[in-house]
Amino acid sequence: MLSSLTLASAFLALCIACVAANIARQLLFPNKKEPPVVFHWLPWLGSAVSYGRDPYKFLFAARAKHGDVFTFVLLGRNVTVHLGIAGNDFVFNGKETHVNAEEIYGPLCTPVFGEDVVYDCPNAKLMEQKKFVKFGLTTEALKVHVRLIEHEVVDYIKVSREFKGPSGIVNVPPVIAQITIFTAASALQGPEVRSKLTNEFASLYHDLDGGFSPINFVLPHAPFPHNIKRDRAQLTMRKIYEGIIADRRAGKLPPTTDMISHLMQCSYKDGRPVPDKEISNMMITILMAGQHNSSNVASWIMLHLANEPRICEELYQEQLDQLADENGNLPELELRDMEKLQLHSSVVKETLRMHNAIHSIMRLVKRPLPVPGTPWTVPPGHAVLASPGISANSEEYFPNPTKWDPHRWDNRGIEEDDESEMVDYGYGRMSRGTKSAYLPFGGGRHRCIGEKFAYLNLEVITAVMVRNFRFKNIDGREGVPGTDYSTMFSRPLEPAEICWERRSAEGA
Ligand code: HEM
């Protein structure tokens, strides 16, 4: 009894000594050669609680105190944040030898995406894989996607219990999550995968998605039930894709011109065709990488439209003005129509601005990294973090940033691509993004390859919802729900209910 008391006291004393040493080090011996550290009481845990609860609030508060560059401790790791346009450039366009994404994201993503793709292969191979996918999203492919996406949304509205009758109330996020998985599967994954979505594939998707639990950033291989299910689902899903590829090669399935077929024709620079296992894992990546972001942004769009029915009516009017025939009938959507729907595009841009789906983008520092314009160097082992959501929600770049105002884009394009700023990391020329405060799809070698598809998907979903329904907030509610940061992707806090009313008795 005595000895366990002594042990407990010794442990307590050790803890107190660690906390005291941690505080003294911060207050008395700051390292002047490195960026200032956000004060934290507890070693190892650091600022994890306040950062995890509301990353944007935490980052804005730290910026108010320390400026655009500072370090905070997150579960034993030093994370150096660089905010603003310069920070976006610092992190996104860091040299591959200096900053590395795969060591940060690999442990979480590789068990979900699978072996030999994305962060489980050399960066040069990832660049080739990104090129294959990006080049598969041709204008011809996008034309087909518009039709497929529209049909999916229309069919969903027809059969869903959530939209029965002339009006009702709907909890937006789960409904939109279903719609976006159907649209992405139908357009990107091909008919076989789409046909499986109603049964075993849906539960596999759910199990695989469990691999994105935030705890997996720290313990990705712990034998938790969700990790066991994740690993089983990855293997089963991969086998399903490999089966589809084998059947297509054997001519047992009708020929298609979708992403699987495109990848089946791709070869690496050394002439090696992409192995079936890698095609399968790339398809799984495409399915998993875009789903949460697209679903969350589409949910925020619906919630803002309900909060500002005036904009919903303007969107409807835009469709009537731009697309309706002489009798006022709206045709099925085409890719060329989407270019005419400027306000629809602004709604998507503005929602991406306010609700940047990924609040923190990180890289691991491999070599001492001087921070331009400061006396500081970020040492190897730190993570560096950019948060384009901060610049996109700062007064200096977007006046009145907390107002959701699609019309702010009326006379403001996304910064024009400056030829001298163009760069090719191996998957096509693109802007370095250095001059932009608006980078919802990131920048540099890890920039999103799904951007074009994502915009189109969101615009078509919005257009179909708007031509079918009017939306408004539930009586007595104002504004949109707060943000839930408890998962990896910022999403609306639930319940996030809105009222809908069908535009015509017969519906669309
Ligand atoms: C609204 C929808 C989307 C948003 C906001 C979004 C955002 C992003 C961002 C910010 C990154 C950069 C991450 C980093 O630098 O660490 C990224 C990377 C990526 N995105 Fe997207 N994305 C979306 C949809 C999609 C879709 C539909 C696909 C698939 C077609 C996709 C595939 C990818 C892939 C494979 C990467 C990893 C690239 C790399 O590390 O090199 N995304 N996305």
UniProtKB/TrEMBL annotation:
> Does the record carry Signal as a key word?
yes
Q: Which Gene3D superfamilies match?
A: Cytochrome P450
Instruction: Please give one Gene Ontology molecular function term for this protein.
Output: heme binding
So where does this one cross the membrane? none
Main subcellular location: membrane
Q: Where in the cell is it found?
A: Membrane
The answer on whether this UniProt entry bears the keyword Oxidoreductase reads yes
Q: Which residues form a coiled coil?
A: none
Q: Which cofactor does it need?
A: heme
The cellular component terms of Gene Ontology attached to this UniProt record, alphabetical and capped at eight, are:
membrane
- Which InterPro entries does its entry note? CYP450_sterol_14alpha_dmase (IPR050529), Cyt_P450 (IPR001128), Cyt_P450_CS (IPR017972), Cyt_P450_E_grp-IV (IPR002403), Cyt_P450_sf (IPR036396)
A Pfam match is p450
Sorted keywords for this record are: Heme, Iron, Membrane, Metal-binding, Monooxygenase, Oxidoreductase, Signal
Binding positions for heme per the UniProt entry: C448
Q: Which residues form the signal peptide?
A: 1-21
Which family is this sequence assigned to?
Belongs to the cytochrome P450 family.
UniProt protein name: 14-alpha sterol demethylase
Instruction: Show the taxonomic lineage.
Output: Eukaryota, Fungi, Dikarya, Ascomycota, Pezizomycotina
